[in-house]
Amino acid sequence: MPKSPTKSQSKAKPPPRSESLVHMEQRLKKAIPSWLWDACIPIAEDDNTDPDCIYSVTTSSENKRMAMKRMQDLVDEGFHQQYPDRPEEKDLKVYSEPTSKSMKVLKELLDASPVAMGRLDDFTDAERQYVYFHHDMFSGSQSWGWKSDYEQQIKDALEVVKEEHGQNELMVARWAVRDRCVECIAGITGYEGAYSYQWSDESIKWLSDNPPIERNPGRKLVKLQ
After folding, report:
1. Where in the sequence is the domain holding 118, given as residue range(s)?
2. Stated pTM of the model
3. What segment(s) does the record annotate as region Disordered (predicted)?
């Protein structure tokens, strides 16, 4: 005759349910700044399907779960904590509508940069003052970036902004450089690692006190088809 469940057994809790994708997304959105979420979610949702193929490798639900897993990896590795607070829109006018000499110089300097990302070696002589392009004959990869002399000019301009305005406006200027780097060279990228999704940001160095100057080619790599 089977035994009746004991009192403790009858009150045992059922195993916890797996977190729903909706709840997971809500939780992650609370942890990740909204601007960073908007920048990263398209990367997380990319299943590497050939754009010429009409069929996706993953279903809609599988893609959503993959994206949330990648965003969870972002939080787990503390990628979102590397960034200082992004200035509010109203504070950006000191750069977007500059009145001081130092901000005007910085804006003119950044505006001069051509968009190098995704291009082949088709830069004009004028554009080559700011960017480099390198094609590795052995690996078939391409790389491009801001030239070291140009990066040094940007770094020097930031120092002048700091001297004229102080720390708060300097942070606005650093974010302006970071965002221009994203537009022209490279920004946030990701790839599947051995155990988790690996996130990186080529532009984040411009938010630091002493951004290192690149001396050798080797930023954004793209395999030639």
Report:
1. 89-187+194-207
2. 0.82
3. 1-21
